[in-house]
Amino acid sequence: MAEASEAASVQRPEDDDHDLLTFGEAGARLEIEIRETRALVRELEEGSPRDDAALERARARLRALEEGAERNRAQPINDANFERFFGYSGEARRNTTW
Predict the structure, then answer these.
(1) Alpha-carbon distance 1 to 49, whole Å?
(2) Is the dihedral of CA 70, 72, 73, 74 positive or negative?
(3) Which domain holds residue 36?
(4) Is residue 26 part of a domain?
(5) What is the rounded distance in angstroms from the CA atom of residue 40 to the CA atom of residue 67?
(6) 55 occurs within a structural domain
(7) Does 20 have pLDDT greater than 80?
(8) Which residue among 3, 42, 69, 90 is buried most deeply as judged by most CB within 10 Å?
(9) CA terminus-to-terminus distance, the chain
(10) Does 96 score more than 60 pLDDT?
(11) How confident is the model at residue 33, as a pLDDT?
(12) Left, alpha or beta for 26 (phi > 0: left; psi -120 to 50: alpha)?
């Protein structure tokens, strides 16, 4: 039940192209996974008996997701790199960062 509320609380750009996995949509999906994985890490940390192997796997996944989210934020498409990225001229959409 917590998963549905986590997903619902992540905002997506209304004018995003829903046929494409945009930076905005990728950021939203990463944020959902990060929130869910953080909850799993907390649950595993508080578990008794503690499953250290599962906890380490969850922490490793969380680190990888956070690194992916950082990469997604660090390389937004802008007017200067739009044509090089897509192969045609145009303007980058705004407000698609998370």
Answers:
(1) 24
(2) positive
(3) 21-74
(4) yes
(5) 18
(6) yes
(7) no
(8) 69
(9) 24
(10) no
(11) 97
(12) alpha
Could you read off the pLDDT of 29-84 as tens digits, one per residue? 999 999 999 999 999 999 999 999 999 999 999 999 999 998 888 766 777 777 77
Distance between CA atoms of residues 28 and 7, nearest Å: 9
Q: Into how many domains does the chain fold?
A: 1
The reply to whether 57 falls in a domain is yes
Average pLDDT, the chain: 81
pLDDT at 10: 74
38 in Cβ contact with 2 (< 8 Å): no
State if pTM tops 0.85.
Answer: no
Place of tokens 């705004």: 94
Does residue 88 belong to any structural domain of this protein? no
CA–CA gap between residue 58 and residue 81 (Å, rounded) = 35
Our CA angle for 61, 18, 87, nearest 5°, is 90
Cis check for the bond before 13: say yes or no (omega within 30 of 0).
no
